[in-house]
Specification:
Blueprint lengths: L11 E5 L5 E5 L5 E4 L2 E4 H4 L7 E3 L3 H8 L6 H8 L14 E5 L3 H7 L9 H10 L7 E5 L5 H10 L4 E6 L2 H15 L6 E5 L2 H5 L7 E6 L8 H7 E11 L2 H14 L6 E3 L3 E7 L2 E9 L4 E6 L35 H23 L1
Parallel strand pairs: 7-8, 7-10, 8-9, 10-11
Antiparallel strand pairs: 1-2, 1-6, 3-4, 5-6, 11-15, 12-15, 13-14
């Protein structure tokens, strides 16, 4: 749902100060949010336009307005204890710019149970998975709803998303985050609780255009996934470790039901651009996970995979090779290396004698 006009109660807003620090809150009439620089009064934000600047209030002003002000030194000492500098949190007058959060901002700031997929990976899933409006998408692993909300946006009300989540508490978090984002539960979304194989067994054959797997063992779900996906459909799997990636890739190849997997990861680095000071920032988002993308073959047809050369053995374990052999290096190359090094040693000795 696209929201325009003044900010309303119930909406989430993002407040950013001049240092770039962000605070994301849901506007509730009468509520106050404490920050490092005073108190944000929600009534001051409700009704203003995006791009407005609001100013925090001090604790003293809030107490004065509510009639709760107490200047007794003993009361101040009791509330602050032996750390009087904590009172600086009550100082107001700090400016924040108010905006509605972007989808990426909402995903990063929303309450979460399970670890979310980063926006950089979500964008790759949408693009490489070719997920477009009107499509029927199956998602396994709802988590906190980060991927699900983006999938709901990608398919739109003309499409449909079915999410399978194993744990009921994560399904609750996922549904709540999506409901807050849209203002109501999306009508083009089914959220099913249970393990993937059991739930998918009740889904019709070839009923999905795309599948997104975000789970610990996606290689064990390929059979049911191939049954419910339409021929030519795209499967995108997100895994975090190299062992998961290896097992999944080999399972995809061994099944013969999926095309050669395409694997990649995305690294994100922001830049500082200030006058002539243009350089990468010192921190970046490095490895978060791997994406494996493959497509479903039609029933009765085996996938075509590249054949490895006989001299290139990448599957035999080192311990099963009956002992290690030295890497073969030609005598000619060895003689050249020795000749070059002897010349360098000779020059080094002559130089030291001078």
């Amino acid at each position: 749902m696209i929201r325009r006009g003044p900010l309303c109660a119930g909406e989430k807003v993002q407040l950013t100060d001049r240092k770039g620090k962000m605070v994301t809150i849901q506007l509730v009439p009468g509520r106050v949010t404490q920050t490092e620089h005073g108190f944000i009064v929600h009534n001051d934000v409700i009704g203003v336009k995006e791009g407005s600047v609001i100013v925090t209030r001090s604790k003293a002003r809030e107490q004065e307005a509510s009639g709760e002000q107490n200047d007794d030194p003993q009361h101040i000492q009791a509330t602050r204890g032996n750390k009087p500098w904590k009172g600086t949190r009550a100082i107001g007058g700090w400016e924040y710019c108010v905006m509605r959060p972007r989808l990426a901002d909402y995903v990063l700031s929303m309450p979460r149970g399970a670890q979310i997929m980063y926006p950089k990976d979500i964008a790759e899933v949408i693009q490489l998975g070719d997920i477009r409006p009107g499509m029927r998408v199956l998602e396994s692993g709802g988590g906190s709803g980060a991927m699900g909300i983006n999938l709901l946006e990608a398919v739109g009300a003309s499409g449909h998303l079915t999410t399978i989540e194993l744990r009921p508490e994560f399904a609750h978090i996922c549904e709540a985050n999506a409901t807050v984002f849209y203002g109501e539960r999306p009508l083009w979304w089914d959220l099913l609780v249970g393990d993937f194989d059991s739930v998918a067994a009740g889904l019709p054959d070839a009923s999905f255009d795309r599948i997104v797997l975000d789970m610990l063992d996606p290689w064990n779900r390929l059979e049911q996934a191939h049954r419910v996906i339409a021929p030519g459909g795209v499967l995108t799997a997100y895994v975090t470790t190299t062992t998961q990636l290896s097992r999944l890739a080999e399972a995809v190849r061994a099944s013969g039901q999926w095309t050669e997997p395409d694997v990649q990861e995305t690294l994100e680095r922001t830049w500082k651009v200030e006058g002539l000071a243009v350089r990468p920032n010192h921190q970046m988002i490095g490895h978060t996970g791997f994406l494996l993308v493959t497509r479903a073959m039609a029933n009765g047809f085996a996938a075509l995979h590249k054949r490895e050369r006989a001299t290139k053995d990448v599957y035999t374990d080192v311990d099963d090779m009956g002992g290690l052999e030295l890497r073969d290096i030609s005598d000619r190359k060895v003689r050249k290396v020795i000749r070059d090094l002897d010349e360098q040693v000779s020059f080094t000795r002559r130089s030291s004698e001078v």
